[in-house]
Amino acid sequence: QRLWRRPPALRRFVGDLRTFAPELAFVLNSVSFSVTSAMLALWSGARWVVGGDSRPFGSQVSARAYSLQLPGSPILDRHAVAHSLAPLQAVGITTTDLSTVVVPSPADRAQAAALVRELLPERPFWALHPGAGKRQNLWPAERCAEGAGRAAAAGHPVLVLHGPADSEALARLRAALPAPAGPPAAPVVIAPALTVGAGAAVLALVERLLCNDTGVMHIAGALGLRTVALFGPTDSALWKPPSSRVLALRAPSRQDDPRGPEFGYLETLSVDVVWQVWSAP
Predict the structure, then answer these.
(1) Could you give the CA distance from residue 237 to residue 82 in angstroms, rounded to a whole number?
(2) Average pLDDT rounded to a whole number, residues 91-102
(3) Measured on CA atoms in the order 172, 175, 181, 186, is the torsion positive or negative?
């Protein structure tokens, strides 16, 4: 969204997008219609833009802009990847492979390697991402801090990753990190802010990750990273990345929470349970 407010940067972005010179662009929707995705496809300069019908989502964008509309539905009745691919299946484009792929650029890989050499030299390390785009998907930051402390005490350096939406969770985690009684067996290090590409490249170097149900989880799944993903109100059977390397750990119950019916799940997930799964051989 910040890009829309900076016309020079937006013009550069559209110019870069057009260098791909696509003949055909597909726009896939999940449980909502993304006007941003539609605009990117149209700005790409593709001769043909094909995507799901936006009308079930309450929008007329596809009727006015797409060369061909495919069936679309906001009802998630199967895994999210299969649901997103269903419009293509309607026109005979099928696959049995639901895996996702992320390939960091050489520049991002170089940046990640330099960062890891500086912050965590000479040892394999674990990673923790304490944030989430949705507040109801946040495991309490104090428990994240305790989990990171247990990993460090067991000799596993931990790199804490974060994004622009994670400032509150990160501040609470910083405040809650346990002070070691003596020299720590391994450090807990807060990473600097990274782009999505550089963050993915760092994740490609991680031994194992603990995160909430959020975008970083999907990047980790696409990289094939051993990941424990914490789920609260969201159904992990529908949203967990389709990778056997990602283990979904769902809150066992819900406690009363004044913030609303989607809150109060992750508060019932204990550090002992999470640590048992995250540290398993």
Answers:
(1) 12
(2) 92
(3) positive
